[in-house]
Structure formats: C-alpha cells, structure tokens
C-alpha cells in the first residue's frame, strides 16, 4: 500500500481539492483508494459527504489515530492512501509526514508562497521523507509559472504538471466530484490526470 501525504505550511494552495481530485483519478484506474482527512477544518471529509459515489473511501482521522488506521487499511484491500493535513507544520502534522511514502507540496506561484515552501522542503529533507512540489492555483503569464518552477527546483523535485486556477475545480468540489468526473474533457481534468500519472510513476519507482 502506498501513502501520499499532501502538506504545506501555507493555506490557500488548493491542497484539499488536489487530494480529492487525485484520489478520484486513481480510483478511475482501478486502484482502491482511501482519503484520510487529518485537517481540523475537515474540508475533504465534507467533500466526501457530498459524494454520491462510494469510492474513494473518505474519512476523518485524528493525527494520534493515524498509525492504527493505516495499519488496518491493507487488510481491507486498499492500495493507495492519500492524507490531507492542516496548512501548518506542527506536532499534529508530524504523524502524516512520518507515514508518507511520498509527500506532495502544493505551492502557488507567488513570492510569499515560494518563500513559505522553502522551510517545508527543509523539514521534509530533515525527516528523510521523499517529496515533490506541484505548482497549484496558477494564474497569469507562463513566465510567472516558469520562474516559480525554476525557484522551486533549487529545493526539490517539481511535478511536470502545473495546476491552474480554474472554475471546474471549485464547481466539482462543491458537487462532491473530482474534476475528471465533473468535466472529463476539460483542462482541469487533463492537469489532474498528468499529476496523478507522475505521482503513480514516482511512488512506483520507489516501491
């Protein structure tokens, strides 16, 4: 069973939306997926409550319960777990980082977000946790996004799939859907499929 934790020191990066959309994309490929929401805001859990589909499985999980819950999931046939965390790095996030096979760090292409991502990367390196950035909530010119990617590459791997600020993400999330379900042929769906394909290769190559 593979475990992907989404973590960022700064809120507003679209972390919870990505967790939901990536889980839906994985399920579409026949990978039995669970999403665990350890964020006190419970955004992904509320998204799961709005869903009509029974998959992926979505549940809340207190950080101190995470190890026990993760231990039980392989017995239920789960192949992938995606963990959403609070927008901070504190003791409550530590269990999700420790459990991760790979940590995905969403970053908006703004100076403030790039600066916040640097200590996140350092903490993950110190923990010897494999991680990569994904540029999320992108907007404006391609040069802005390219410059942000160049800056992040100094601190870690960057996903070859930028995720832009698109209405499909908000509309799908409100409807309890992933963007690949809401508008399968849209640009947002294409971005999520590219991101999931990269994640699948990355965790598969380091089994």
Structure, explained:
With 207 residues, the chain is α/β, with parallel strands linked by helices. It has one domain (2-204): Rossmann fold (3-Layer(aba) Sandwich), CATH 3.40.50. It is 45% helix and 15% strand. The protein contains nine helices and seven strands. The chain has helices at residues 15-28, 43-50, 66-72, 94-99, 111-126, 142-153, 167-174, 179-182, 187-204, and strands spanning 2-6, 33-37, 57-60, 80-84, 102-107, 131-135, 157-158. Strands 3-2-4-1-5-6-7 form a seven-stranded parallel β-sheet, sandwiched between helices. Helix 1 (15-28) crosses helix 9. The longest helix is centred in the last third of the chain and has 18 residues, at 187-204. The N and C termini lie close together (9 Å).
Topology summary:
Elements: E1 2-6, H1 15-28, E2 33-37, H2 43-50, E3 57-60, H3 66-72, E4 80-84, H4 94-99, E5 102-107, H5 111-126, E6 131-135, H6 142-153, E7 157-158, H7 167-174, H8 179-182, H9 187-204
Helix pairs in contact: 1-2, 1-9
In short:
With 207 residues, this protein is an alpha/beta fold. Helix content is 45%, strand content 15%. The model has no long low-confidence stretch (mean pLDDT 92).
Query: Distance between termini?
Result: 9 Å
Instruction: Give me the secondary-structure category.
Output: alpha/beta
Mean pLDDT: 92
- Arrangement of strands in the largest sheet: 3-2-4-1-5-6-7
Per DSSP, the total helix count is 9
Strand residue percentage: 15-25%
Number of individual domains: 1
Shape: globular
Radius of gyration, whole Å: 16 Å
CATH architecture: 3-Layer(aba) Sandwich
Low-pLDDT sequence parts? none
> What is the CATH superfamily label?
P-loop containing nucleotide triphosphate hydrolases
> What is the ordering of alpha helices and beta strands?
EHEHEHEHEHEHEHHH
In CATH, the topology is named Rossmann fold
């Amino acid at each position: 069973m593979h475990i992907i934790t989404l973590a960022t020191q700064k809120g507003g990066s679209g972390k919870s939306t990505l967790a939901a959309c990536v889980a839906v994309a994985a399920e579409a490929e026949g990978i039995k997926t669970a999403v665990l929401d350890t964020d006190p805001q419970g955004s992904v859990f509320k998204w799961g409550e709005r869903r009509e589909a029974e998959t992926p499985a979505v549940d809340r999980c207190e950080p101190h319960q995470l190890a026990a819950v993760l231990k039980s999931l392989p017995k239920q046939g789960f192949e992938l777990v995606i963990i959403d965390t609070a927008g901070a790095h504190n003791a409550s996030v530590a269990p999700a980082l420790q459990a991760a096979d790979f940590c995905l760090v969403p970053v908006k292409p703004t100076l403030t977000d790039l600066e916040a991502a640097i200590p996140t990367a350092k903490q993950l390196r110190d923990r010897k946790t494999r991680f990569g950035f994904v540029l999320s909530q992108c907007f404006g010119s391609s040069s802005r996004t390219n410059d942000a990617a160049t800056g992040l590459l100094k601190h870690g791997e960057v996903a070859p799939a930028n995720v832009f600020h698109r209405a499909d993400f908000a509309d799908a999330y409100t409807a309890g859907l992933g963007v690949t379900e809401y508008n399968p042929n849209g640009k947002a769906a294409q971005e999520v499929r590219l991101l999931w394909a990269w994640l699948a290769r990355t965790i598969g190559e380091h089994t």
